[in-house]
Input
Amino acid sequence: MKILAFAASNSRNSINRDLVSFAATLLDKHEVEMLNINDYEMPIYSSDLEAAHGIPDAASNFLKKIEKVDALLISYAEHNGNYTVAYKNLFDWASRKNIEIYQGKPIIMLASSPGAGGAKSVLALARDSAHFFKGNVVSSLSIPSFYDNFDSVKGELKNAELLAQLKTALSAVDND
Output
């Protein structure tokens, strides 16, 4: 099974990139491609820009990446309870090309933040709206208090209970 994994963040020091990278190592019986949304930079979406210049190639290229895989693994960063602007912009442009962005693929959704809330707001937003974009969320997991629960030196979860929950969430891709 081919899985596309990415953090919905453009930060060079993204804890969600750390989380999704670690989660990808646990999917060792699958072929996992890591994507960096910084490779899909576009102007901030506006209907005026779309009318004047069309949809940027980067949006089509992002959709083609999704088309070529069997499943998605996404870790959402939370900015003020919502998506990062970088991801929302990529999502908005891509939706203008194909509203069914997720293309019916099984999706495992993760999120983390430094705080005890663990980015639950953005995770709920992503999970609850995925069906509008032909998303099939097979599991989701929030990792709270990232710096307390993740060993940045080893690049892995150090909280055994959360590690077990992550493994269970990841196994859902095999059951779909």
In short: The radius of gyration is 16 Å. The chain has a mean pLDDT of 97.
